[in-house]
Design goal:
Number of strands: 21
Distance between the termini: 32 Å
Oligomer: single chain
Largest sheet: 8 strands, parallel, barrel
CATH topology of the largest domain: TIM Barrel
CATH class of the largest domain: Alpha Beta
Strand content: 15-25%
Number of helices: 18
CATH architecture of the largest domain: Alpha-Beta Barrel
CATH superfamily of the largest domain: Phosphoenolpyruvate-binding domains
Shape: elongated
Strand order of the largest sheet: 1-2-3-12-13-14-15-16
Helix content: 25-40%
Radius of gyration: 24 Å
Structural class: alpha/beta
Length: about 475
């Protein structure tokens, strides 16, 4: 299951990918993490998918990560008397209010009092993924008189985006709280929080998770972009969710924002996923467009930890082909000499601690000599994440006795995770690293590897030792004799 690439692939499961045969085929094709979209499907359906993933993991003998993506608060208009909806003309007046009477061509219910509490004249409202645009002319605590600036057909329960204001809404709805508890009890490795606006949203989710899963923030609102540094500080990872981000911001703003967020995550040694519409044409076609391939490649050149498939693998006609295409694109990009130039030129030297210095030295030694791999012992995953931040040229072998850590590291760039027996002496850590490197065909008996660890062992963030170790038989046999 060792990948011949460093970037990871996240594949969403759904109606097209819920059987053992398909999920195993997706893993074999290149999926490192499976996403359970809590916006769709029942708890029983998600539990069944979780059980299948864990069986595939056991059968393949390699850790697989599972990410549960919480729906978040969905803002929608009410219903219309005409089930087919109404046509709004550019320039006309249109009212949103709390009245639950069916709508018509002049008004419709917006059953979210919090929006009216936050609106001000001049604010924009986007309906149906921005296809219809309204500008608030006058508003009160239960209404908003708007002008239609971009017309179109508005129909029952279309989504509403409010890009100009920070809404007094919790990122966790009542449904999300139930889904979060269900997912944590199920044993997922990552939780994704939708429509994050402020650091407090992440703090609340982390408190509810209680360490049972790592928590990442989905960046899909302008408010989250503005508060990104503070949100990143209280998050375990980030997803650049370009769908809603491209609705609430001018589309030309999204590529530079994506690049900025990816670099900040790398500097912080926290995994980042680039998501949404990456190979969307493959929902219906076995071949992607050239533009889609370029989009995936651009994210990889930027140094993202992972790229994600949504409907392509969840509901499309070619889920396995979509994963295989991503795998092929990643392998090709990472073999390009330009990729190395870009990755290394964007490396930001961060040496604030002993651990920072150790992992930086490990990368420099590996690149200056004929080192085959960097093996790092990492109980919490911190050391492996720091090594991944360096984006070394040689493989990263993340060794841990914690199955949860191995699964979470499936989202981190370059980390090949191996579960080993606990060790209490550095010599035994070196022996375990050599055995793993040999077993994974990363090194032979004449080769050497770099080993990093923290002494005393089992202390998160204590990385303080580095050794260049030969992979010779004598080392392994002498340890067996002790």
């Amino acid at each position: 299951m060792r990948r011949h690439r460093n970037v990871k692939i996240v594949a969403t499961l759904g109606p097209a990918s819920s059987t053992y045969e398909v999920i195993r085929a997706l893993a074999e094709a290149g999926a490192d993490v499976f996403r359970l979209n809590m916006s769709h499907g029942t708890h029983d359906e998600q539990r069944a998918r979780h059980e299948i993933i864990r069986k595939v993991e056991a059968d393949l003998g390699a850790p697989i990560g599972i990410l549960a993506d919480l729906q978040g608060p969905k803002l929608r208009v009410g219903v219309f008397a005409n089930d087919e909806g109404e046509e709004l003309e550019t320039g006309q007046a249109f009212r949103l209010d709390l009245d639950d009477a069916p709508g018509d061509s002049t008004r419709v219910q917006l059953p979210h009092k919090e929006i009216f509490d936050a609106l001000e004249p001049g604010a924009s409202l986007l309906v149906n993924d921005g296809k219809i645009r309204l500008k608030v002319r006058e508003c009160g605590r239960d209404f908003a008189e708007c002008e239609v600036t971009v017309g179109g057909t508005i129909s029952n329960r279309k989504g509403v985006n409010v890009p100009d204001v920070v809404l007094p809404l919790h990122a966790l709805s009542d449904k999300d709280r139930k889904d979060l508890e269900f997912a944590c009890e199920l044993g997922v490795d990552w939780l994704a929080l939708s429509f994050v606006q402020r650091p407090a949203d992440m703090i609340e989710a982390r408190e509810l998770a209680r360490g049972r899963a790592a928590v990442l923030a989905k960046i899909e609102k302008p408010a989250a972009v503005k508060a990104f540094d503070d949100i990143l500080a209280v998050s375990d990872g980030i997803m650049v969710a370009r769908g809603d981000l491209g609705v609430e911001l001018p589309v030309q703003n999204v590529p530079p924002i994506q690049k900025q967020l990816v670099r900040k995550c790398r500097t912080a040694a926290k995994p980042v996923i680039v998501a949404t519409q990456m190979l969307e044409s493959m929902i219906e076609s076995p071949m992607p467009t050239r533009a889609e391939v370029s989009d995936v490649a651009a994210a990889i050149y930027e140094g993202t930890d992972a790229v994600m498939l949504s409907a392509e693998s969840a509901a499309g006609s070619f889920p396995i082909e979509a994963v295989r295409t991503m795998d092929n694109v990643a392998a090709e990009v990472e073999s390009d000499p330009t990729y190395r130039e870009i990755i290394e030129s964007s490396r930001k030297i961060t040496r604030r601690s002993v651990a920072d210095g150790i992992v930086s030295a490990a990368r420099e030694i590996a690149e200056a000599t004929d080192i085959k791999a960097i093996a790092c012992f990492s109980q919490s995953g911190t050391t492996a994440s720091l090594v991944a931040r360096e984006r070394p040229r040689v493989p990263i072998l993340a060794l841990t006795s914690e199955q949860d850590t191995a699964r979470r590291l499936c989202l981190t760039w370059g980390c090949a995770c191996v579960i080993v027996e606990p060790v209490d002496r550095f010599k035994m850590a070196v022996v375990a690293a050599v055995r793993a490197a040999r077993a994974e065909n990363l090194a032979g008996p004449q080769d050497t590897i770099v080993v990093t660890a923290g002494v005393p062992f089992n202390t998160p963030g204590s990385t303080n030792i580095l050794r260049v170790a030969p992979c010779e038989e004598r080392l392994i046999f002498s340890a067996d004799a002790e």
